[in-house]
User: What shape does this take?
Amino acid sequence: MPLTEEIHLRYNLYISHSWNHNDAHKDLDSLIKGRNDFDYRTYSLSPHHPVNQIKGERKLYETIKNKMKFCDAVIILCGVYPTYSRWINKELIACKDELNKPLIAVQRFDSSHTSFIVKDRADVIVDWNADNLINAIKRVVAGAK
Assistant: This one.
C-alpha cells in the first residue's frame, strides 16, 4: 500500500489595506487564521506605516511594490471606499503590471457595492468565505508556478 505525504506549504500573501474600513483587514485575517490546513504570512503594508506620512506618491508605490515582491498572491477586497483613491491603483499596477502576481478579489458584500476595477483585474473573485478564499489562494499559486 503506497504512502501518501501531504506537502505543507506556507503562503506569502499581500493583503491590501486600501479598504481599511470597519476593520475589514482584521476580519479577513481572522477568517483564515488558525486553520490547520492553511499556513500563511502577510507582507502587507499597514496604513500606520511611516510612508503614509510622506506626500510623495512614488515612495508609497515603491514601498507597496517591495512588500508585494515576496508574495505568492495579492488579496484585495472588492468594496468601494474613499480610501481606495491613494492605494488601490498603486497596488493593482504593482501586482498585475510590474510583478505579475495572482490577484484574488474578495466580495464581502453584494456586487452592487463592489469595485469594477478590482474585479476586472482579478484572476479570481470569491465571496467572503474561508474555504473559498483558501482554495482560491492554493489554486492561483499552483497555477503561477
About this structure: Residues 18 and 88 are 6 Å apart (CA to CA). The longest strand covers residues 10-15. Helices lie at 24-32, 57-68, 84-98, 116-121, 130-144. The chain has one domain: 10-144.
